[in-house]
TrEMBL record:
Signal peptide: none
Pfam family, one: ABC_tran
Name of the protein in question: ABC transporter ATP-binding protein
Domain of life: Bacteria
Residue ranges of every copy of the ABC transporter domain listed in the record: 21-243
InterPro entries in alphabetical order: AAA+_ATPase (IPR003593), ABC_transporter-like_ATP-bd (IPR003439), ABC_transporter-like_CS (IPR017871), ABC_transpr_LolD-like (IPR015854), MacB-like_ATP-bd (IPR017911), P-loop_NTPase (IPR027417)
Protein backbone atom coordinates (compact mmCIF):
# COMPACT_ATOMS: atom_id res chain seq x y z
CA UNK A 1 0.00 0.00 0.00
CA UNK A 2 2.47 2.62 -1.08
CA UNK A 3 1.91 6.03 0.30
CA UNK A 4 -1.74 5.76 1.23
CA UNK A 5 -3.15 8.53 3.36
CA UNK A 6 -1.55 8.43 6.78
CA UNK A 7 -3.61 8.18 9.94
CA UNK A 8 -4.10 11.43 11.78
CA UNK A 9 -1.71 11.97 14.67
CA UNK A 10 -3.27 12.13 18.10
CA UNK A 11 -4.42 15.66 18.85
CA UNK A 12 -2.02 17.38 21.23
CA UNK A 13 -3.64 18.72 24.35
CA UNK A 14 -3.60 22.44 24.78
CA UNK A 15 -0.13 23.72 25.55
CA UNK A 16 -0.97 26.82 27.59
CA UNK A 17 2.37 28.61 27.79
CA UNK A 18 3.54 27.02 24.54
CA UNK A 19 5.89 24.63 26.26
CA UNK A 20 7.34 22.43 23.55
CA UNK A 21 9.61 20.17 25.60
CA UNK A 22 9.11 19.35 29.26
CA UNK A 23 11.39 16.79 30.87
CA UNK A 24 11.06 15.97 34.55
CA UNK A 25 13.62 14.00 36.50
CA UNK A 26 14.67 12.04 33.43
CA UNK A 27 17.04 9.19 34.13
CA UNK A 28 18.67 6.70 31.81
CA UNK A 29 20.74 3.73 32.81
CA UNK A 30 21.99 1.16 30.36
CA UNK A 31 23.17 -2.38 30.91
CA UNK A 32 22.64 -4.58 33.95
CA UNK A 33 24.20 -4.51 37.38
CA UNK A 34 27.08 -4.73 38.16
CA UNK A 35 27.99 -3.27 34.75
CA UNK A 36 25.10 -0.82 34.73
CA UNK A 37 25.99 2.68 33.56
CA UNK A 38 24.08 5.75 34.69
CA UNK A 39 23.92 7.93 31.60
CA UNK A 40 21.42 10.56 32.75
CA UNK A 41 20.93 11.21 36.45
CA UNK A 42 17.86 13.40 36.71
CA UNK A 43 17.32 15.94 33.98
CA UNK A 44 14.77 18.74 34.34
CA UNK A 45 14.38 20.85 31.23
CA UNK A 46 11.67 23.10 29.82
CA UNK A 47 11.86 24.54 26.32
CA UNK A 48 9.22 26.94 25.01
CA UNK A 49 8.10 27.42 21.42
CA UNK A 50 10.51 29.31 19.22
CA UNK A 51 13.57 28.91 21.42
CA UNK A 52 16.93 27.92 19.98
CA UNK A 53 18.86 25.74 22.40
CA UNK A 54 22.43 24.53 22.05
CA UNK A 55 23.28 21.44 24.08
CA UNK A 56 26.96 21.33 24.97
CA UNK A 57 29.08 18.98 27.01
CA UNK A 58 32.12 16.77 26.78
CA UNK A 59 32.05 13.65 24.68
CA UNK A 60 30.29 10.88 26.59
CA UNK A 61 28.35 13.27 28.83
CA UNK A 62 25.01 11.99 27.53
CA UNK A 63 24.04 14.59 24.92
CA UNK A 64 22.97 12.15 22.21
CA UNK A 65 21.18 10.04 24.81
CA UNK A 66 19.23 13.03 26.11
CA UNK A 67 18.25 14.04 22.59
CA UNK A 68 17.08 10.49 21.85
CA UNK A 69 14.80 10.64 24.90
CA UNK A 70 13.45 14.09 24.07
CA UNK A 71 12.79 13.06 20.46
CA UNK A 72 11.01 9.90 21.59
CA UNK A 73 13.59 7.61 19.99
CA UNK A 74 14.49 5.96 23.28
CA UNK A 75 12.67 5.34 26.53
CA UNK A 76 13.91 6.79 29.79
CA UNK A 77 14.57 4.57 32.80
CA UNK A 78 12.61 7.06 34.90
CA UNK A 79 10.94 10.44 34.75
CA UNK A 80 8.67 11.98 32.15
CA UNK A 81 8.91 13.67 28.77
CA UNK A 82 6.14 15.73 27.25
CA UNK A 83 6.67 17.12 23.78
CA UNK A 84 4.05 19.40 22.22
CA UNK A 85 1.69 18.34 24.98
CA UNK A 86 2.07 14.63 24.27
CA UNK A 87 3.28 12.17 26.88
CA UNK A 88 6.13 10.49 25.01
CA UNK A 89 6.72 7.87 27.65
CA UNK A 90 3.11 6.70 27.49
CA UNK A 91 2.85 6.40 23.68
CA UNK A 92 3.65 3.14 21.93
CA UNK A 93 6.08 3.03 18.98
CA UNK A 94 3.44 3.46 16.30
CA UNK A 95 1.75 6.37 17.97
CA UNK A 96 5.12 7.97 18.65
CA UNK A 97 6.04 7.71 14.96
CA UNK A 98 2.72 9.24 13.97
CA UNK A 99 3.09 11.97 16.58
CA UNK A 100 6.54 12.85 15.24
CA UNK A 101 5.64 12.77 11.56
CA UNK A 102 5.75 16.20 10.01
CA UNK A 103 6.09 17.94 13.37
CA UNK A 104 9.46 16.88 14.65
CA UNK A 105 12.56 16.76 12.48
CA UNK A 106 15.54 14.77 13.66
CA UNK A 107 19.10 14.80 12.35
CA UNK A 108 21.06 12.02 14.00
CA UNK A 109 24.81 11.82 14.41
CA UNK A 110 24.87 8.72 12.19
CA UNK A 111 22.71 9.89 9.36
CA UNK A 112 20.49 6.82 8.92
CA UNK A 113 19.93 7.35 5.21
CA UNK A 114 18.37 4.42 3.39
CA UNK A 115 21.18 2.93 1.27
CA UNK A 116 18.88 1.64 -1.48
CA UNK A 117 17.36 5.07 -2.11
CA UNK A 118 18.89 8.03 -3.91
CA UNK A 119 19.40 11.33 -2.13
CA UNK A 120 16.17 12.58 -3.70
CA UNK A 121 14.20 9.52 -2.63
CA UNK A 122 15.59 9.69 0.90
CA UNK A 123 14.08 13.16 1.25
CA UNK A 124 10.94 12.67 -0.88
CA UNK A 125 9.63 9.37 0.44
CA UNK A 126 9.04 10.58 4.02
CA UNK A 127 7.26 13.60 2.55
CA UNK A 128 5.01 11.33 0.51
CA UNK A 129 4.32 9.28 3.61
CA UNK A 130 3.26 12.48 5.33
CA UNK A 131 0.77 13.08 2.51
CA UNK A 132 2.65 15.80 0.65
CA UNK A 133 1.41 16.06 -2.95
CA UNK A 134 4.54 17.51 -4.56
CA UNK A 135 6.98 15.45 -2.57
CA UNK A 136 9.66 15.06 -5.24
CA UNK A 137 9.66 18.72 -6.24
CA UNK A 138 9.79 19.78 -2.58
CA UNK A 139 12.58 17.30 -1.89
CA UNK A 140 14.60 18.58 -4.85
CA UNK A 141 14.29 22.14 -3.61
CA UNK A 142 15.31 21.15 -0.06
CA UNK A 143 18.37 19.37 -1.43
CA UNK A 144 19.17 22.42 -3.49
CA UNK A 145 18.95 24.53 -0.33
CA UNK A 146 21.67 22.44 1.32
CA UNK A 147 23.84 22.69 -1.80
CA UNK A 148 23.12 19.24 -3.19
CA UNK A 149 21.05 20.11 -6.25
CA UNK A 150 23.66 18.30 -8.34
CA UNK A 151 23.55 15.08 -6.29
CA UNK A 152 19.87 14.13 -6.48
CA UNK A 153 20.36 10.74 -8.10
CA UNK A 154 23.36 9.69 -6.05
CA UNK A 155 23.04 6.90 -3.53
CA UNK A 156 24.37 7.43 0.02
CA UNK A 157 27.42 5.24 -0.68
CA UNK A 158 28.32 7.60 -3.55
CA UNK A 159 28.23 10.65 -1.26
CA UNK A 160 30.87 11.98 1.12
CA UNK A 161 30.15 12.10 4.84
CA UNK A 162 29.43 15.81 4.63
CA UNK A 163 27.06 15.29 1.71
CA UNK A 164 25.24 12.51 3.55
CA UNK A 165 24.91 14.82 6.53
CA UNK A 166 23.32 17.45 4.32
CA UNK A 167 20.87 14.92 2.85
CA UNK A 168 19.86 14.06 6.42
CA UNK A 169 19.38 17.76 7.16
CA UNK A 170 17.29 18.27 4.02
CA UNK A 171 15.18 15.25 4.97
CA UNK A 172 14.58 16.62 8.47
CA UNK A 173 13.77 20.14 7.25
CA UNK A 174 11.57 19.17 4.29
CA UNK A 175 8.32 18.67 6.24
CA UNK A 176 8.84 22.11 7.86
CA UNK A 177 8.78 20.70 11.39
CA UNK A 178 7.86 22.96 14.29
CA UNK A 179 10.61 21.30 16.33
CA UNK A 180 14.00 20.31 14.97
CA UNK A 181 16.51 18.16 16.82
CA UNK A 182 20.00 18.00 15.34
CA UNK A 183 22.97 16.08 16.73
CA UNK A 184 26.17 17.86 15.68
CA UNK A 185 24.70 18.92 12.33
CA UNK A 186 27.89 20.63 11.20
CA UNK A 187 30.22 17.97 12.60
CA UNK A 188 31.22 16.61 9.19
CA UNK A 189 31.23 19.85 7.27
CA UNK A 190 34.03 22.22 6.34
CA UNK A 191 33.78 25.72 7.81
CA UNK A 192 32.13 27.35 4.78
CA UNK A 193 29.55 24.60 4.26
CA UNK A 194 28.88 24.41 8.01
CA UNK A 195 28.25 28.12 8.10
CA UNK A 196 25.82 27.90 5.15
CA UNK A 197 23.94 25.07 6.89
CA UNK A 198 23.74 27.11 10.10
CA UNK A 199 22.31 30.00 8.10
CA UNK A 200 19.66 27.64 6.74
CA UNK A 201 18.75 26.27 10.18
CA UNK A 202 18.46 29.73 11.67
CA UNK A 203 16.50 31.04 8.68
CA UNK A 204 13.90 28.32 9.30
CA UNK A 205 13.99 29.17 12.99
CA UNK A 206 13.31 32.85 12.29
CA UNK A 207 10.86 32.54 9.39
CA UNK A 208 8.76 29.67 10.65
CA UNK A 209 9.30 30.08 14.39
CA UNK A 210 10.65 26.55 14.51
CA UNK A 211 12.15 25.49 17.83
CA UNK A 212 15.76 24.38 17.46
CA UNK A 213 17.51 21.92 19.75
CA UNK A 214 21.06 21.43 18.57
CA UNK A 215 23.92 19.40 19.99
CA UNK A 216 27.19 20.95 18.99
CA UNK A 217 30.86 21.34 19.76
CA UNK A 218 31.01 24.33 17.46
CA UNK A 219 31.27 27.57 19.50
CA UNK A 220 30.00 29.62 16.54
CA UNK A 221 26.87 27.54 16.27
CA UNK A 222 26.29 27.61 20.04
CA UNK A 223 26.72 31.38 20.13
CA UNK A 224 23.93 31.81 17.58
CA UNK A 225 21.46 30.01 19.83
CA UNK A 226 19.41 31.96 22.34
CA UNK A 227 20.17 29.52 25.11
CA UNK A 228 23.02 27.22 26.03
CA UNK A 229 22.46 24.12 28.15
CA UNK A 230 25.52 22.28 29.31
CA UNK A 231 25.57 18.64 30.29
CA UNK A 232 28.19 17.09 32.53
CA UNK A 233 28.23 13.56 33.85
CA UNK A 234 24.52 13.03 33.35
CA UNK A 235 23.43 16.32 34.92
CA UNK A 236 22.65 19.77 33.57
CA UNK A 237 25.57 21.78 34.92
CA UNK A 238 24.73 25.10 33.29
CA UNK A 239 21.71 26.67 31.59
CA UNK A 240 22.08 30.24 30.39
CA UNK A 241 20.65 32.62 27.84
CA UNK A 242 23.08 34.21 25.41
CA UNK A 243 23.40 37.97 25.07
N1 LIG B 1 23.99 1.18 24.41
C1 LIG B 1 24.84 1.61 25.33
N2 LIG B 1 25.24 0.81 26.34
C2 LIG B 1 26.08 1.26 27.30
N3 LIG B 1 26.57 2.51 27.34
C3 LIG B 1 26.22 3.35 26.37
C4 LIG B 1 25.34 2.97 25.31
N4 LIG B 1 25.15 4.04 24.50
C5 LIG B 1 25.89 5.03 25.02
N5 LIG B 1 26.55 4.62 26.13
C6 LIG B 1 27.41 5.44 26.97
O1 LIG B 1 26.65 6.52 27.44
C7 LIG B 1 27.44 7.66 27.62
C8 LIG B 1 26.78 8.84 26.94
O2 LIG B 1 26.74 8.62 25.54
P1 LIG B 1 26.21 9.72 24.55
O3 LIG B 1 24.84 10.10 24.94
O4 LIG B 1 26.41 9.21 23.16
O5 LIG B 1 27.21 10.93 24.86
P2 LIG B 1 27.59 12.21 24.00
O6 LIG B 1 26.60 12.34 22.88
O7 LIG B 1 27.53 13.35 24.97
O8 LIG B 1 28.98 12.00 23.50
C9 LIG B 1 28.80 7.30 27.05
O9 LIG B 1 29.65 7.02 28.14
C10 LIG B 1 28.54 6.08 26.23
O10 LIG B 1 29.68 5.25 26.19
MG1 LIG C 1 26.83 12.31 20.79
Amino acid sequence: MPFSASPQPPAPDSAPDSIVIEARNLTLSLGRAPAQVQILRGIDLTVTAGESVALLGPSGSGKSSLMALLAGLERPSGGSVRVAGLDFVGLDEDRLAIARRGRIGIVLQAFHLLPTMTALENVAVPLELAGEANAFARAASELDAVGLGHRLTHYPAQLSGGEQQRVAIARALAPRPALLFADEPTGNLDAATGSAIMDLLFARHREAGATLFVITHDPNLAARCGRIVELGDGHIVDDRTTA
